[in-house]
Amino acid sequence: MSYFRVNEKCNGCLACVQNCPADALDSTDVGDHRTLRHNMARCARCGNCWRVCPEDAIEFQHLLENKWDEIASLTLALCSVCGEILYTTRFGETVSVKLDRTIKPLCPRHRESVASLARAHFFPGGKRPKEVQR
Ligand code: SF4
Ligand code: SF4
């Protein structure tokens, strides 16, 4: 997912670090090892590092890629009657916890028809409990 990529041509000259106007590049030397780092939040995508790099080591094109990164993958809850997509199962769990009851995965159409079946079963002949007057 790193958009800033440096290829194997890099010789660690630090021209990019020294010419970055946004302090988005730095390096550390520890023991016998030099590490270059890039900070995406600071990077202005100005391309200066790419222009000054004498080795063509910065693959700047990745910084300009217009692409979407997948950041989450979640299971969907489908209507248990018709399979219509409702919401994610995690969202259903969240709502269930907040309401303190289990949410049945039903689309509005089938939620109504299940309610109708229940009414027909429990109140045959169309009799229904009196509506509470507010
Ligand atoms: S694109 Fe510009 S701001 Fe980003 S690292 Fe390179 S020189 Fe720095
Ligand atoms: S300017 Fe190029 S060669 Fe030099 S350290 Fe940066 S990426 Fe590596």
Structural notes for this entry:
The chain is α+β, with helices and mostly antiparallel strands and about 130 residues long. It has two domains: about 15-65, Alpha-Beta Plaits (2-Layer Sandwich), CATH 3.30.70.20; about 75-125, no CATH class. The chain is about 25% helix and about 15% strand. It contains four helices and four strands; from the N terminus they run H-E-E-H-E-E-H-H. The protein has helices at about 15-20, 50, 90-100, 110-120, and strands spanning about 25-30, 35-40, 75-80, 85-90. The strands form two sheets. Strands 1-2 form a two-stranded antiparallel ribbon. Strands 3-4 form a two-stranded antiparallel ribbon. It starts with 14 loop residues before the first helix and ends in a 12-residue tail after the last helix. The model has no long low-confidence stretch (mean pLDDT about 90). One iron/sulfur cluster binds near residues 43, 44, 46 and 49.
